[in-house]
Amino acid sequence: MTHLVVVGASLAGLRAVEAVRRDGFDGEVTLIGAEEHLPYDRPPLSKEYLAAEECPDPRYREEETFAGDLDVELLLGTPASALDTAARTVTVGDRTVSYDGLVIATGAHARTLPGTEGLEGVHTVRTLDDAIALRAALRGGTSRLTVVGAGFIGSEVASVGRRLGLEVTILEALETPLARAVGERMGRALTHLHRRHGTEVHTGVAVEEVVSRDGRVRAVRLGDGTEITTDVLVVGIGARPATDWLEGSGLTLDDGVVADETLAAAPGVYVAGDVARWPNALFTDVAPGTMRLEHWTSAADQGGRAARHAVDPASARPYETVPYFWSDWYDGRVQFVGIAAGDHVEVVAGDDAEGGPFTAIYRAGGRIVGALAVDMPAEVMKYRRLIGARKSWDDALELAEQRRQQRAEKARQAAEQQGASA
Amino acid sequence: MRIVVDWDKCTGMGMCESLAPDVFEVDDDGSLILHTEEVSQDQEAEVREAVAACPTEALSLEGPIDA
Ligand SMILES: Cc1cc2nc3c(=O)[nH]c(=O)nc-3n(C[C@H](O)[C@H](O)[C@H](O)COP(=O)(O)OP(=O)(O)OC[C@H]3O[C@@H](n4cnc5c(N)ncnc54)[C@H](O)[C@@H]3O)c2cc1C
Ligand code: SF4
User: Fold this and answer.
1) What is the mean pLDDT of chain A?
2) pTM, to two decimals
3) Which ligand approaches the C-alpha of residue A296 most closely?
4) CATH architecture designation of domain A331-421
5) Min CA distance, B40 vs chain A (Å)?
6) Superfamily of chain region A3-109+240-315
7) A336-386: per-residue pLDDT in tens?
8) I need a surface site. Which of A20, A42, A60, B23 has the fewest CB within 10 A?
9) Do the Cβ atoms of B52 and A296 come within 8 Å?
10) Which residue segment(s) compose the domain that B15 sits in?
C-alpha cells in the first residue's frame, strides 16, 4: 500500500487520515474536499455558532497540521467527479488521482424545498457557509422564523430563534415529529419541549407553496390554505447522501454507498460517515438489513476504521457500534444511544409528560436496544454499555433500579446538607 | 501516562464514560468526574478510544506509559 486517497474532507475524512498516520502509515495520503474550507465541526453550526455573540472557530485543525505533522496533501475546493474502481483512480477537476486504498467520506447534502432556490430568506444548515448566512439573517431585524421540519437540526435552529427573541413556528409533515428517530411516544415528549419554550408546532401539515415577493420569502402556504407570514424560512427536511459523483462507478448506491460489515464497498474501497450504509451486526437480529447514521460519533469512528482497512485490507474486521447522538434544545440536552426499534419503551426516570427531564429505554427481542434522555446527562451512557454487550431487558431494568436508588440517596444527602447549613 | 481534560471544551457528553467507565463518569449535573488521572497499562486501549470518541476533543494524553 503506497497511496491512500480520502474523498470528503470533513469529520470522517479527517479522522481517516489521522488514524493511519497515528498508526505509522508512511505512504502517500491525499485528502480531497469539495469545500474551500479546512475540515470543520458541523454540530455547532445549528447551535452555538448561530446563538453566540462571537462565533467560535469551527475548524478542527490548522492548515500547517496537514502539511506538517500529518503530511497530507490537501486538495480543497473541487469535488471529485468520478471513480474508476478497475483502474483505481478518482477524477478531481482535470486531475486523475490514482489510489491503492480509497476512503469515501463525502457525507450528505441538505435537502431543499423545490422552487425555493435563490430565494432570499430561505436557508438550509449543512455547511459553514450556510451557517454564516443564517446567522446574519437571524440578526438582521428579523422577528419571525419559520422552520420546515421538526427534526433535530430544525429543532435546534428553532431553539436558537427563541433564544434570540424571535417568534418561531415549526411545520412538520408527520403527525409525530421524530417518530422514526425516537419512536411515537418519545417524539411527542420532545415536542412538549418546543411548546414549553413558546415555539409553535404544527404537525401533520403539508407545505403547499413558499410565497415570495421581489425575490424574498414572505410566507408559507399550507395544504389547508393557511398562510404563515415569515421573515426567515429554514428548511430542515433532512439530508441526502452525497453519492451523485459515484453514479456509474459500479458501487451499489441505495440511500448511501452500500458496504459490507467491514465497510468495504469494492476491493480497496471503504466508506465512512454520513454517506456509509452497512450492516451493523449488533442490531441485525432485531433490525435486519443495513443502516446509515448521520451522527458525529459514528462518522469519527468509521473514518478511522475505514482508513485502517483501506491501507491494510487483510486486517479488516466487522465494524459494529452503538449509535449515539446528542442535540441541544433551548437550555437542555437530548441524548440518544442505540436504535429506536422494538416493541416497548419504558420511562425509567423522570416524567416524559411535560418533556422532561426523563430517561427512557427501548426493548427489542428481549434485550435493551436504545436509551433516550432529556436533561439527564448521567444516564444514557450507562445504558450504552449494556446495549453494546447485548444485555437483557432485565439487566437494563436492574440498572434503572440501581440508578433510582443512587439518585434518591444523593437527593437525601443534599437535603441533609441543606438542613445542616440552614 | 496522564489524562488531560480541557474543562472549557468538555460538555459532559459521556462518550468517554461509555468506553472507559472506570476512568470517566458524568455526574447528574453533567460535569465530568475523573476517577483517576494516571492511566494504567490495562486501561490504555479503552482510554485511547475514549479520547478519540470525545465529540468536543476535550481529552488528551500526556507523558509515557507506566511500566
Ligand atoms: C447543522 C448540523 C448539526 C449537527 N449536530 C449534530 C449533533 O448535535 N450531534 C450529532 O451526533 N451529530 C450532529 N450532526 C451530524 C454530524 O455533523 C455528521 O454526522 C458529520 O458531520 C458527518 O461527517 P462526514 O465526514 O461523514 O460528512 P460531512 O460532514 O457531511 O462531510 C462530507 C464532506 O465531503 C464533501 N464532499 C461531498 N461530495 C464530495 C465530492 N464529490 N468530492 C469531494 N468532497 C465532497 C462535502 O463538501 C463535505 O465537506 C450535525 C450535522 C449538521 C449539518
Ligand atoms: S466525551 Fe468529552 S465532552 Fe463528553 S464527558 Fe467525556 S470529555 Fe467531556
Assistant:
1) 96
2) 0.96
3) 1
4) 2-Layer Sandwich (3.30)
5) 21
6) FAD/NAD(P)-binding domain (3.50.50.60)
7) 999 999 999 999 999 998 888 999 999 999 999 999 999 999 999 999 999
8) A60
9) no
10) 2-62
